[in-house]
């Protein structure tokens, strides 16, 4: 079967638990919003195909659990990602301060010294 896209882009959503990563993804792929918070267990993903300058780009977005206990699992997905979306809750300064930690995790795993 012929490929239905020209380029595959793998992105990873990172951020504290409850900041809205899953909601952002549901809005982007399905234009839906769910008010309940069911924590992501490990990782999950959704896809959307966009046409950019005549090129079919399949965006595969991996949604990771923000909870500390899943870090070992989620870090295994960092190396295969081509980009990261760091998410914080605008009503939580703590989640914003943690962005530094998420960014340093990405550096540590994806660009080891
Ligand atoms: N008011 C408001 N609530 C939001 C918004 N985005 C998400 N929420 C709520 O925040 C809660 C957590 O959202 P999730 O998307 O599940 O959070 P998450 O970052 O995926 O959480 P983990 O899976 O535990 O890492 C849910 O109850 C959402 O309804 C927003 O833009 N505004």
TrEMBL record:
Family: Belongs to the small GTPase superfamily. Rab family.
MF term (GO), any: G protein activity
Subcellular location field: Membrane
UniProt-listed Enzyme Commission number(s): 3.6.5.2
Catalytic activity: GTP + H2O = GDP + phosphate + H(+)
NCBIfam families: small_GTP (TIGR00231)
The organism of origin for this protein: Oncorhynchus tshawytscha (Chinook salmon)
Superkingdom of origin: Eukaryota
Protein name according to UniProt: small monomeric GTPase
